[in-house]
Design a protein that fits this description.
heterodimer; A: alpha+beta; Ubiquitin-like (UB roll); 5-stranded mixed sheet; two-stranded antiparallel ribbon; B: alpha/beta; Cytidine Deaminase, domain 2
């Protein structure tokens, strides 16, 4: 069962320009691993040292996975996954 | 190039939230590079030294822009004690290579800096800000008002 993953502009270099791609997996980590098998380099843009990169938000449906189990957050059969870069900064 | 009313709104938002950093976007039609719809965002960090769009608000914003076939043409925020130039943190987070990153400094009470940058792969390039009354005649320059002439609203 495939889920749809929405890819932000900055990561579309890894998906041949596609805005959304299909992937399989029961957790966010599985989905990323599956994506990496076809879109090389994507995983490194999302995960550092086994945890989700500070600069990236991943949502399963409407839920930010940081508040839903992180990379182990479950992905249901009819879920959609959205990847967005965090919009943040500061004076330092 | 930015419409004067939008530039004024950005400055007013920055003043209103001072001493915390203010942030938001101006969305515009995909591929147009024309900033049209200003969306002030809450600074979830509520901090004088850091800003971050709330993650739920961010998702709602992008879904809304997608449904309108828009992109973030301008991403703005304020610096409240330092110059309007991207910090190391700004650069490390910047991830919309097509966007104009507008910075406003509100460190001086009576005046402000209003500057715009591209941030691509960690490289900052300042760009000239042209303030116009309307985009309609922008190519002729007929409706242009002088650069940097954005009156403070107080």
């Amino acid at each position: 069962m495939a889920v749809t993953v929405s890819i932000p502009t900055i990561l579309r270099t890894h998906t041949g320009g596609e805005k959304s791609v299909e992937a399989k997996g029961g957790t966010v980590a599985d989905v990323i691993e599956d994506l990496e098998s076809r879109h090389s380099g994507l995983s490194a843009r999302l995960i550092t040292n086994g945890s989700l990169h500070r600069f990236v938000n991943i949502y399963v449906d409407d839920e930010d996975v940081r508040f839903a189990g992180g990379l182990q957050a479950p992905v249901g059969e009819n879920s959609s996954v959205t990847i967005l870069p965090a919009v943040a900064g500061g004076m330092r | 190039m930015i419409r004067a009313d939008l530039a004024r709104e950005i400055v007013a938002h920055a003043r209103r939230d001072h001493p915390d950093e203010a942030c938001g976007v101006i969305a515009g039609p995909d591929g147009s590079d024309r900033a049209e719809r200003l969306v002030p965002m809450l600074n979830a960090a509520r901090s004088p030294t850091f800003y971050e769009f709330d993650s739920g608000d961010l998702l709602a914003l992008y879904r809304d822009m997608d449904s309108r076939d828009e992109v973030p043409v301008v991403i703005y925020h304020s610096h409240t004690a330092t110059e309007a130039y991207p910090s190391r943190t700004d650069i490390s987070f910047a991830s919309e290579p097509e966007a104009h990153y507008v910075l406003v400094s509100t460190r001086e009470a009576g005046s402000h800096e209003f500057r715009s940058f591209r941030i691509v792969d960690g490289v900052v390039t300042e760009e000239q800000v042209e303030v116009v009354e309307t985009y309609m005649f922008a190519h002729t320059g007929a409706d242009a008002v002088p650069d940097g002439d954005i009156p403070d609203q107080s």
